Structure formats: structure tokens, C-alpha cells
């Protein structure tokens, strides 16, 4: 039996990249101490959240996209040998690419 994982509505699973010192962005020390976004690849997306008026918000990213997300958000889980972080869709700050 194959196991699968699907985040609940409004959530997304990210295959987070480790902080690699060989980066193209220079970050001064003061920036490293703040709540800086992290980078990762979208592994799975839950259903689209709906506001109180019934408007559905579809994410601006898809599975496989490289994204930036807030550093101190989410829940770390291990699935299929991968370390994933489950975060709210609203915590995805940008799509890289």
C-alpha cells in the first residue's frame, strides 16, 4: 500500500532546502537574526482557503515551484524519507524562477 500525504485546506507542504553558505544573496549579519524567509520546493498543496464572504483564494504557486517562506512558521514533519515543513499558504512570500 502506497502512503500519501495531503495538507488540509489553506496549508502547503514544503521540501525545505538546508541553509547553504554558498548563496548568491549577501545577507548582512543583522538580517540573519531577523525572521527571514527560507527557500524550498512545494511538495503538496491543500485545498484553497475561503474567506467569510465565500471567495476562494487560489495559491499563486504549484507543486514543484521553488518558493520563499517565513523562517519561524510551520510544523516540521518527516514523510517518505524527506523532511518537510507544513505552513499556511499565506506564509509563502514569493515564487523563485
Question: What do these coordinates show?
Answer:
With about 100 residues, this protein is mainly beta. The protein contains one helix and six strands, in the order E-H-E-E-E-E-E. The protein has one helix at about 30, and strands spanning about 10-15, 35-45, 65-70, 75-80, 80-90, 90-95. Mean pLDDT is about 80; it is low at about 20-25.
SSE map:
Blueprint (H helix, E strand, L loop, with lengths): L10 E6 L12 H4 L4 E9 L20 E5 L4 E5 L2 E7 L3 E5 L1
Antiparallel strand pairs: 1-2, 1-5, 2-3, 3-6, 4-5
Short description:
This protein is mainly β and 97 residues long. Helix content is 4%, strand content 38%.
Features:
single chain; 97 residues; mainly beta; six-stranded antiparallel beta sheet; 6 strands; 38% strand; globular
User: How many beta-strand segments?
Assistant: 6
Strand content: 35-45%
From the helix content, strand content and strand pairing, which structural class follows?
mainly beta
Overall pLDDT, averaged? 81
Q: What is the H-and-E element order?
A: EHEEEEE
> Which residue ranges are poorly predicted, with pLDDT under 50 across at least 5 consecutive positions?
19-24
Amino acid at each position: 500500500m502506497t502512503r500519501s500525504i495531503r495538507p488540509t485546506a489553506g496549508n502547503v507542504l514544503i521540501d525545505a532546502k538546508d541553509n547553504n553558505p554558498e548563496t548568491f544573496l549577501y545577507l548582512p549579519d543583522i538580517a540573519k537574526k531577523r525572521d527571514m524567509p527560507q527557500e524550498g520546493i512545494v511538495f503538496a498543496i491543500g485545498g484553497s482557503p475561503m474567506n467569510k464572504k465565500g471567495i476562494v483564494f487560489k495559491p499563486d504557486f504549484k507543486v514543484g515551484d521553488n518558493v520563499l517562506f517565513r523562517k519561524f512558521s510551520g510544523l516540521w514533519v518527516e514523510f517518505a524519507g524527506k523532511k518537510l515543513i507544513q505552513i499556511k499558504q499565506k506564509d509563502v512570500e514569493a515564487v523563485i524562477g
